[in-house]
Amino acid sequence: MCCSPQGGRSPPFVSFRLISIGYKKPLERDDLFELNESDSPYTVCPNFEKQWRKEIQKLLFKKTSFHKPSLIWPLWQTFKCVLIKVSFLKVTADILAFMSPQIMKAMIMVSENRPTSYVSGYGYAIALFFVVLSQTLLHQLYQRNNMLTAVKIKTAVVGLIYKKALTLANSSRRNYTTGEIVNLMSADAQQLMELTVNINLLWSAPFQIIMAVIFLWKELGPSVLAGVALLLLVIPINALIAAKVKRLKKSLMKYSDQRVKLLSEMLHGIKILKLYAWEPAYQRKVMSIRECEVDVLKSSGYLTTYSMLTLTCIPFMVSLATLGVFFHLDEENVLTATKVFTSISLFNILRLPLFDLPSVISAVAQTKVSLSRLEDFLCAEDINPKDVNTNYSGNHAVGFIGASFRWEKNGIPVLKNLSISIPEGSLVAVVGQVGSGKSSFLSAVLGEMEKLEGTVQRRGSVAYASQQAWIQNDTLQENILFGADLHRQYYELVLESCALLPDLEQLPNGDQTEIGERGVNISGGQKQRVSLARAVYSNADLYLLDDPLSAVDVHVGKHLFEKIIGPSGLLKSKTRILVTHNVTFLPHTDLIIVMEEGRISQMGTYQELVSKRANFAELIQVFSAEHTTEETTPVEGEKILFLVCSSSFDQWKLLTNNKEKVATGGMKMTVVLKYLQAFNWRWMWLTIAAYLGQNALAIGQNLWLSTWTAETAEVSDFTEWKQSQNYKLHIYGLLGVIQGLFVCCGAYVITRGSLSASRALHHQLLDNVLHLPLQRFETDPVGQIINRFTKDLFIVDSRFHYYLRTWLNCTLDVIGTILVITSASPLFIVVVIPLGYFYFTIQRYYIASSRQIRRLAGASHSPVISHFSETLVGRSTIRAFGHQERFIRKNNDVVYENLVYFYNNVISNRWLCVRLEFLGNLMVFFAALFVVLAGNTMSSSTVGLSISYALNIIQSLNFWVRKACEIETNAVSIERICEYAKMDKEGPWITSKRPPVGWPDRGIIKFVNYKAQYRKDLGLALKDVSFQTQSKEKVGIVGRTGAGKSTLTNCLFRVLEGSEGKIVIDGIDISTIGLHDLRGNLNIIPQDPILFSGTLQSNLDPLGKHSDLELWEVLELCHLKDFVQSLPKKLLHEISEGGENLSVGQRQLVCLARALLRKTKILVLDEATASVDMETDNLVQSTIKREFHNCTILTIAHRLHTVMDSERVLVLDTGRILEYDTPHNLLQRKGAFSEMVAEAGIRRDKENLGINTS
User: Out of the domains of life, which is the source (predicted)?
Assistant: First the structure.
């Protein structure tokens, strides 16, 4: 049931329907209103972008390079009509606010004159009711339009940020990490929205102050100038505070960016952190940034002490100064109830603009920082589409003429003087050593690099398979179709050609199986084949393939080459540029390009290069020495053998639904108690005491004035009264000063408490997340977790304590007001009880809907972050395919869903406010009515006190209920933070039982009847596994996809806990010791080379345990020493996010160097040299054999030839051990291993080569 309000209206009965549904059952998406077309991102974003483009063009026309375009003017041009409408509503509501004190003044004057008939009194009571009712309706209309305008502005800016991220040049992209760009979208755009909500206060607050001063002049004459002078004195202090707040905001954003960036990288590289037991080191890094953040929050909190003092004490100080001067100007001046309570009502009106003005000035200062950051990003350099010429004569598909390129602005050229012409329909191989510029060559063709000189030519549509396959969090079919229509016959041909059909048979939902974020739940080989299938299905003219065959075994690689890339493959008529390290394919290519140090060192056909170029022939010989005995033969029936390292397919079942779960039902009090516990009970009781004190003193001040004016009415001889007025004025002043002290104490203790809560909840969240088992990260999108550390933590840091404080203040204010009015008119209690009942009924009705909408909105924000992060990672692929517009549409879709919840939240808020304020208006009416009914029995001072408090109660009651609702709805953020505490955790990092120093010293691994399963309701992933290695033994682990190879290593590192049996390493059952004692003493070289931003040194040694000399030694062993020495900062070279400024091969070598630093007796080798050239591969393999000769090595085999020289081979099938013996004995036995070797086409003389005789 989708309700769509017409013309932007949400009639009360329609919105009541929403609230009514929400009260009866938890709201769902279908129950909510849809957006009006004019409010949707599909309309808002293009309109704003058009104005932004005009602003840029205007500056280009003026040629003012030193000025950057401003967002303010395009925003005004886009939204000026609705902003003017909102301003008109605001000014009308403000004028009505000043009518209430004037009606109250008339009523006090009626009481003072003591007439025989009170008909005029009844008229004034009714007039007062209609004035406050009109003000309510206009104010709520203003609020509704204001909120919707603010969110439209945020939507427009978010849309522009997203579009900019897709066009950002790589040189600019290196200045912005994913975390920083996400922060621009979530924090800075949010700041702009929050300012828009309050922007009218910039003129409305001064307008209200001027109006109040005019009316006060009528009551108190020139003495009001003393109060104005005091106000003027406060303004420069506010300006200083605002400047300080601006600086603090800048610092806070800087630390927040750093923290989110680090967390984002940690979560994407969580596997490395867990396997290397690095969580505490990185936890300390996050906590140190967080401490800096909390220090800034502390300074900001202490500044709010001044703001609170302004809000509470400035009206009192203004009234004190005014009254003091009023008495001294003329001795005949006396205080009457009319003057005092009319003035007090005006001072109460004055309180909010006085408080709002410094707040909005501060918000302007903060938003200026955010605007500057947004403008810097939006003005960053874009990719220049003119770098690549697509309109040229000639029949070549790609051409370079004297072209040079670089990645970074002012950086050194990476590709130099390229001149080449690639004919249409040809197959071109690009080869060369690690870091020679192969991937950069493809990036230059795509236009991803900055062109320094020369010409680049490219014709036709492009399909691109990147070296590190980019996979979307979507179904496998959608990943392949990539937005294209499904043509079943061609689609199935692509699946068969990419060797994906056997995988589909094992997936729970076939090609409808959902792949996790960044493809976390599929193997490297499967990612590459899906990426290749996406390219093939696009049916483009030009195919750029960046080493897609590196992550698959030799036989699958041959199948992919023959069926797709090669001369008889599916793409035989297309132009294909293939980066590869596998030289067996080179004879089948039309042209070979050899890259060396960014230049084309050699070029020609295979025969030409072998016959004429000595160093190319050497490259072939290096490969031949490695692979002479591994030749592939056609396999009967085109049967494919998969030896790709893959998670057990049981893991697919873990990913049944990775969408965020939304809680339902009432907010448990335990959630708020958790916050108060983190807040610290001591600070809480002190806060309550301080607020009780300041509210009691506020009532005391007004009662003192009431008594004072009552005496004035009764005194006939004013000589005595004048003598006591100074004493009374001093008491009034003293009460105000003590109230000010209570305000300062309250602000101080609430700051201390809120900081304690921020620190404790962040620490708990971080600790809980880092203790989650690895499988949790493979099923939950990272965006969900990042959302907790950004949006939800922002509520804890900046909002929740404010709501609690305001609610407490309003509660005490409401109680005080009711007591004052009831003491003046006891009959009022008859009205308070039913009105109070209605208040709580309305609140209960509203809160059920509002809470659920907040929960749904919180969950709908995660897809926005996830899609944005996913786009940033895959931007090169998106641009290569030319799918920018489709991704912009998809971004609009997820933003639209988030906006639907916001829109409905605004509707439900307005529903609440209209009804609450109507009840408040009734209270005002009855207070006024009872005053009239009391007639001559009530003094004019009591009339003034009663009505002035009644006028105040509208705001207090409204705030009270709203803040109670805000507490409950925003407690959703605390609920979302705390929910990680309830999730299953992995074992403790350190236990009381510690292994001896130097363990393991022999490296003997023993599996005893070991069983393991990924979840209790799933089948066993390992079934009764028993085997033992010898000390320093080299064991190869082989098996088909889903055999349990990865599960075995997961169990060794206790990533997956066993359900039965045990694993014993050197006499110690690993389940009895802490995870870090285990993982810290094992070593692994993983398949995916994951690096973190920071220095090269911190990537090699994040714990800081090793000297520079040791680091240089391992770099030399990994053949990286020359490369690192050529860098300007050497070991302190800054690695960009994800290691993007290193080639994939260099990243793998850095990971090898990292492993070499860990001196342990057990190494798990997830064969990780697939992305390096053959020469480097040989050097790395010899380094591993030499440096780890005294270690037990478990090798997960991707290619069978790599385990042929193992001392023993473990053959797995569906979680069971089929065979375990030497390669020689297994081949003689003619079992499963022998069959695999035969299927892979490895010649039998490998037996002799493979037997280790040492």
Answer: Eukaryota
